[in-house]
From TrEMBL:
Family annotation (NCBIfam families): ligD_pol
Class of this enzyme: ligase
Family matches, as Gene3D superfamilies: DNA primase, PRIM domain
Keyword tags: Ligase
Protein name as annotated: Non-homologous end-joining DNA ligase
GO molecular function, one term: DNA ligase (ATP) activity
Signal peptide: none
The keyword Ligase appears for this protein: yes
Pfam families xrefs: LigD_Prim-Pol (PF21686)
Domain DNA ligase D polymerase, first and last residues per copy: 28-287
EC number: 6.5.1.1
Gene name for this UniProt entry: ligD
Length: 290
């Protein structure tokens, strides 16, 4: 069944609204679209100007999925697109036509495509579609079992102190999966990957039993991996307020530092779409720029 709608003056056709995209939870495509529509006021500022990579699940989280960077030819003409170089493209492209979600109609369009996860880089493009210098530094804290997000919180507090020493203010959010992520506004004092790597290595040296800065799986059991490599301009990180493709419709959720400091059980920092809507209504955007 197809339903024609208008979103801020744009004509869209929504389809398969009763399709269940999260079978374990019974969360339908209609609820995905509703979530993204209602969270848009706090989500859109974090997507604005950032080339988009989506992870689509046409038949739900239990079915096949695929990443999509290049906006297909059938993408509506009113969706903003920017053509950027694609060094190292796995499909041997010289350029990629990225979509940019700058408005609510584009967000709803992608939600209707079952683009559950929204991923963006740490840099934006200008009005002419040219890449700007990175404006965000990110650390992805990934726990190696049996460590959980509880251990990630302890590492986040250590990392917050180091960043404060460097004159940077960290903002925490859950990954929406099993880990935690810290962001800070970036002033391009040096290459962000090199800078982030140095801080991760420093903390690994100071806390070798809790922290690892290398990606090798064998080094990570029981420790928290500080993934500094997400600062590579070619990489993306899940956007704040994006859904994740877990059994339940979890969300990459901005946190208050009090929540990080007080976390004792992993489930305390699991937030589903309805939870995040309630948080946004009560607290606004906890991930507003420092």
């Amino acid at each position: 069944m197809k339903v024609p709608v208008k979103v801020d003056g744009r004509a869209l056709t929504l389809s398969n609204l009763d399709k269940v995209l999260y079978p374990e939870y019974g969360f339908t495509k209609a609820e995905v679209i509703d979530y993204y529509s209602r969270v848009a006021p706090v989500l859109l500022p974090h997507l604005l100007g950032r080339p988009l990579t989506v992870k689509r699940f046409p038949n739900g989280v239990a079915g096949p999925s695929f990443f999509e960077k290049n906006a297909p030819d059938h993408t509506p003409g009113w969706v903003r697109r920017v053509r950027l170089p694609a060094p190292g493209s796995t499909k041997n492209r010289e350029t990629i036509d990225f979509a940019v979600i700058d408005d609510l109609p584009t967000l709803v369009y992608y939600a209707n495509l079952a683009a559950l996860e929204l991923h963006v880089p740490q840099w934006r493009v200008d009005e002419d579609g040219r890449a700007l210098p990175p404006d965000t530094l990110v650390f992805d804290l990934d726990p190696g079992p049996p460590a959980t997000i509880v251990e990630c919180c302890r590492v986040a507090l250590l990392l917050r102190e180091v960043l404060q020493e460097e004159g940077l203010t960290a903002r925490p959010k859950t990954s929406g999966s099993k880990g935690l992520q810290l962001y800070a506004d970036w002033d391009c004092r040096e290459k962000p990957s090199a800078y982030a790597k140095r801080l991760a290595q420093r903390l690994e040296k100071e806390h070798p039993k809790e922290i690892v800065s290398v990606m090798a799986r064998k080094a990570r059991p029981g420790k928290v991996f500080i993934d500094w490599s997400q600062n590579n301009p070619a990489k993306t990180t899940v956007a704040p307020y994006s859904l994740r493709a877990q059994e339940r419709p979890t969300v990459s959720t901005p946190l208050r530092w009090e929540e990080v400091e007080g976390c004792e059980h992993a489930e305390e920092l699991v937030f589903l779409a309805p939870d995040v809507l309630a948080r946004a209504e009560k607290r606004g955007d906890l991930f507003g720029r420092a």
